[in-house]
Write a structure and sequence with these properties.
Shape: rod-shaped
Strand content: under 5%
Radius of gyration: 75 Å
Length: 189
């Protein structure tokens, strides 16, 4: 064999060996790749299942969140309506308290006016009672004075009547005697 033939045979042998090594490597890579591909396919399927479950959970969670928001909205609306009702009750209570205070002030003013009027009437009554007592005392005094003066008048009337009768007798006597008699200057009974 010639040298080019030997070189060619060596080259073909070396190339065959390289091809064998390469084919073995490719086969091993294919085996490893197939295993990895199978593993990755399994993982992809698992991940797809997990994604589907996660999407279902997400939808359920969104539903729960939506339902919770609706319930919370209803609760907030209920609380606001209760708060508004309590505010109305509070404002009504404050209004009633103010009205009662004003009425109380009016009643207190009326009571004060009535007490002032009562005190004034009591003072007037006391003054009238004092005036009546004073008038009764004056009447009693006047009655005593009247009795005394009536008695004195009766006495003076009697004295006058007696003196008149005496004077008539004296005048008659004088007229009968024709002369004039002098009477004493003072008369003492």
């Amino acid at each position: 064999m010639s040298t080019p033939g030997k070189v060619l045979v060596v080259l073909v042998t070396l190339t065959s060996l390289i091809w064998v090594v390469m084919v073995a490597s490719v086969a091993q890579i294919n085996t490893t790749g197939s295993e990895k591909l199978a593993t990755l396919t399994t993982q992809v399927e698992k991940l797809e299942v997990d994604v589907a479950q996660a999407q279902r959970k997400l939808v359920d969670f969104k539903d729960q969140v939506g339902q919770a928001q609706v319930e919370m909205g209803l609760d907030v609306a209920t609380i606001r309506s209760r708060q508004a009702a309590l505010e109305r009750v509070r404002s009504d209570t404050i209004e009633m308290a103010t009205r009662v205070k004003l009425q109380l002030a009016g009643y207190e003013a009326a009571v004060q006016t009535a007490q002032t009027a009562r005190d004034q009437r009591e003072a007037e009554k006391k003054a009238e009672i004092e005036a009546e007592a004073k008038a009764k005392a004056e009447v009693a005094e006047l009655i005593k004075e009247h009795s005394r003066l009536t008695g004195q008048l009766a006495k003076l009337n009697n004295e006058f009547t007696t003196t008149l009768a005496s004077n008539k007798r004296l005048v008659d006597r004088l007229l009968k005697s024709g002369r004039r008699q002098v009477r004493p200057a003072s008369y003492v009974p």
